[in-house]
Amino acid sequence: MGLPPAQDTIDILLDxxxxxxxxxxxxxxxxxxKFHSRLYRKRQYVLQEGNICTQxxxxxxxxxRTYKIDEKGAIHILQFASENNWxxxxxxxxxxxxxxxxxxxxxxxxxxxxxxxxxxxxxLKAPKFDRIFRVLIENGFIRLQERLLQNISSTAEERYATxxxxxxxxxxxxxxVQIAAYLGITPEFLSRLRNxxxxxxxxxxx
Length: 206
What we know:
By secondary structure, this protein is an alpha+beta fold. The chain contains eight helices and eight strands. α7 crosses α8. It is globular and about 55 Å long.
């Protein structure tokens, strides 16, 4: 997979924004000026722990993950981001602090990126985007709260059901190891969960 034409990727992002709020032609031109497309090959880092997150990323095609490796070498996945999703380390991006997280590509992935300076400039020139990104960040915070609450109050079966509801398009694109790292269980236990779901009455597959 190569990098698609720049206008094609911008059109996808403009369609995304247009679903939130109509844009003027001048605002569309600003988006085209401020966002830049980039291709990350599978396993390539978008952000590595210790570096400052300098880009806000919108996934056009492919899949990225945010994760942390603990002292025992275990991987804990916080987020998957596939088509039409945003991903970055918000604290590092806004605070310009070294990130405690990694972001890498699980597939060859095309993203549109905007730097912190360009995002601030976009806010100043088109305040509409200040509201749009505030809503995006609020929604991301809400999802994070829901995920934290579920991790401390739900069973592995319930967490897996939620994963399938949130990421139905990724269930067959991600490996069992990656899904297990997101759920906080072992791949072996995930395999047992899948077998149980496949045998449940009325179940097609999971």
